[in-house]
Design brief:
Pfam families: DEP, RGS, WHD_Fungal_DR. This is Regulator of G protein signaling-like protein. This protein has 479 residues and is α+β, with helices and mostly antiparallel strands. It folds into three domains: 164 residues, no CATH class; 123 residues, Winged helix-like DNA-binding domain superfamily/Winged helix DNA-binding domain (Arc Repressor Mutant, subunit A, Orthogonal Bundle), CATH 1.10.10.10; 148 residues, Regulator of G-protein Signalling 4, domain 2, CATH 1.10.167.10. It contains 17 helices and eleven strands. Helix 1 crosses helix 2, helix 13 packs antiparallel against helix 14 and helix 15 runs antiparallel to helix 16.
C-alpha cells in the first residue's frame, strides 16, 4: 500500500523595507531559489541568434517571464511505511511561486543586478526588457544553480555542460538573519579583501589568467606628478565583488569596498569628485574608472601575512577531541564558530570543499523553523500561520531527514523513525495544529542536537587544521 502525503507550500515574497534598497528586493536565499527554479524550467538552454551570430546556452526574455508566472519545485521521497512493513510512504513537498508579468520583469532585473544572468549581445547597458532580449547565465549564476541542484538532489543533463562556463570560485558572504545584509565586521572584511587581492589564506596567490583569483594590480601608476604602486580602480574592485562574491547588487559591493577603506586596508589616491557629489554615501569609495586606490601599509601587511601562511597546521591534531563522544571543548568551539560570521564563512567553505555541508545547512534551516515555531506557540498565532511553518518543516524533512533524501544528514535510527512516523501521518483528529507543531518542533530539536554533536566530533577537528582559517581561528581564541 502506498500512502501519498502531499504538502503544498505556496510561498509569497517578503520585501524587506531596508533604507537604500528598493521595496521590490527579494531576500538573498529566496532570490537564489527563484533564479535556480527558473533556470531549471528553461533547460535545456539552446543557441539563439544575436546579430546574425548564434550564441550558445541562451534563453529569451519572454520565456523567462512566462515561466516565472507559475514556477513549481517538487521534492518527493519514498520510504517504508513505519506502520506497515509492506507499504510505502511517499512524502511530497511542492513549493509554488506565482507572479504577474511586471513583477517577473522586475525579478529578472534583480537577477541581472546580482550578476546571475547577462545580456548575450555584450552591451554594457544591462536592462531586462519583457520582449526581444537574449540572455545567458553567468559563471556566478551557474555556480548558484549548481549549489541549488546539490541542495535539492536535482540531476540536470545539461549541468555538466554548463560547468565549463564557470570561470572561478564564488565566495559565499554570510548575512544577518534578520536584515539579510552582508556582515561587514573587520574580520569578514579582511577575508574578502585578501580574496580580492588574490590570496586565499593558504599561502596561494594565483596568476590573473586563472580567472577569479583576484584583481590585477597595476605595479606603477603616475598621477599628478607622483608614482603610486599596486593600484587599481574603484570600478575594478566593484566589478570583482559583484562577479565573484554573493553580493546582490552594486550597493552591496560598494558597501563592502567602503569597509576596505574604513578598516584601512586600502586608501584613495584619486577620488571621483563628480560621483561623490552625486552620491553622498560614496565619499570613501567610488565604483568608477576615475577613482584610484592603492593598498595601505596595513593592507599590504595583511596580504604579506596571508601569503606567507603555509600549511603549518597540517598534521596537527586537536588534543581536545575525543573518540568516546563529543568533547565539551569541541562543542564550545563549534558554538563560537557558528556565532562568528567570519569563522562561519570559512567553516562553510571548508565543509563545501569536503562535500559535507549538509549538516550545517540543516542546522541553520532547522534553527529558523524551531525559533519561529516557539515564537508562534508563545503568541498563540493563527492556525494558518502555524500550518505554514509545518509546511516548511516538511520541506526540511524531505531535504535532510527522510531516508534517501538529497542531503540526508546522519542521525540515529530512533530519531529518523520518530520523524518518519510524525511527518508521514495526518494530524490526529483530537490534536490541535499547535499540538502538532509542538511535537514536530521537539523532534527537529532532537535531530538538530544530534547533527550539532556530529559536526563537533567530525568537522571541527578538520576545520581547526585548515590553514586558510588558521589566522582567524587564533584571533577568535578558538585555537
Amino acid at each position: 500500500m502506498t500512502i501519498d502525503h502531499n504538502q503544498r507550500l505556496v510561498t509569497s515574497f517578503h520585501f524587506p523595507d531596508i533604507p537604500g534598497y528598493p521595496l521590490t528586493i527579494v531576500y538573498f536565499q529566496d532570490l537564489q531559489d527563484l533564479f535556480s527554479a527558473l533556470l531549471a524550467s528553461l533547460l535545456p538552454l539552446v543557441p539563439h541568434r544575436v546579430r546574425f551570430i548564434k550564441i550558445e546556452h541562451t534563453f529569451l526574455a519572454e520565456d523567462a517571464i512566462h515561466n516565472l508566472g507559475n514556477l513549481k519545485l517538487t521534492q518527493s521521497n519514498r520510504m517504508p511505511d513505519p506502520n506497515n512493513p509492506s507499504g510505502t510512504v511517499v512524502s511530497t513537498s511542492t513549493t509554488t511561486f506565482s507572479m504577474n508579468k511586471n513583477t517577473a520583469r522586475n525579478l529578472c532585473q534583480q537577477f541581472v543586478d546580482a550578476r546571475y544572468i547577462e545580456s548575450a549581445d555584450g552591451k554594457p547597458d544591462q536592462l531586462f526588457k519583457q520582449i526581444g532580449g537574449v540572455w545567458r547565465p553567468t559563471s556566478k549564476g551557474i555556480t548558484i544553480f549548481d549549489w541549488f541542484c546539490q541542495s535539492n538532489g536535482l540531476y540536470q543533463d545539461q549541468l555538466s555542460e554548463l560547468h565549463c562556463l564557470i570561470t572561478g570560485p564564488l565566495l559565499y558572504l554570510e548575512r544577518d538573519v534578520k536584515t539579510d545584509l552582508c556582515h561587514v565586521d573587520r574580520a569578514t572584511t579582511e577575508v574578502v579583501f585578501c580574496r580580492l587581492i588574490g590570496v586565499d589564506g593558504r599561502g596561494k596567490k594565483g596568476p590573473y589568467s586563472e580567472g577569479a583569483v583576484g584583481i590585477r594590480l597595476q605595479p606603477e601608476r603616475k598621477l599628478n606628478g607622483r608614482t603610486y604602486h599596486d593600484t587599481f580602480t574603484g570600478l575594478t574592485a566593484a566589478e570583482w565583488l559583484r562577479d565573484n562574491t554573493t553580493c546582490l547588487d552594486l550597493r552591496e559591493a560598494v558597501n563592502m569596498a567602503t569597509h576596505f577603506v574604513h578598516y584601512n586596508l586600502i586608501e584613495s589616491v584619486n577620488a571621483d569628485l563628480a560621483y561623490m557629489n552625486q552620491f553622498a554615501a560614496c565619499k570613501l569609495f567610488q565604483p568608477t574608472p576615475i577613482s584610484i586606490y592603492q593598498l595601505s601599509e596595513r593592507g599590504q601587511d595583511l596580504v604579506d601575512t596571508s601569503s606567507s601562511s603555509r600549511g603549518s597546521s597540517q598534521g596537527k591534531t586537536d588534543a581536545s577531541s575525543s573518540k568516546g563522544g563529543v568533547n565539551e571543548s569541541n562543542r564550545h568551539k563549534l558554538e563560537k564558530i557558528l556565532l562568528d560570521p567570519t569563522l562561519r564563512l570559512l567553516f562553510r567553505e571548508n565543509l563545501r570543499e569536503t562535500y559535507c555541508e549538509e549538516g550545517l545547512a540543516f542546522y541553520e534551516q532547522a534553527d529558523v523553523i524551531i525559533r519561529d515555531a516557539k515564537a508562534m506557540l508563545e503568541k498563540k498565532d493563527s492556525d494558518d500561520a502555524m500550518n505554514e511553518t509545518l509546511s516548511q518543516s516538511h520541506v526540511i524533512f524531505n531535504t535532510f531527514l527522510a531516508p534517501g533524501s538529497p542531503r540526508e544528514v546522519n542521525v540515529n535510527h530512533k530519531i529518523r523513525s520518530s520523524l518518519m512516523q510524525r511527518m508521514t501521518k495526518a494530524q490526529a483528529l483530537d490534536a490541535t495544529v499547535a499540538d502538532t507543531l509542538k511535537e514536530v518542533t521537539a523532534l527537529l530539536e532532537t535531530a538538530q542536537d544530534a547533527v550539532f554533536k556530529l559536526m563537533a566530533t567530525d568537522s571541527v577537528p578538520k576545520f581547526l587544521n585548515n590553514p586558510a582559517a588558521e589566522s582567524r581561528l587564533v584571533q577568535a581564541g578558538v585555537r
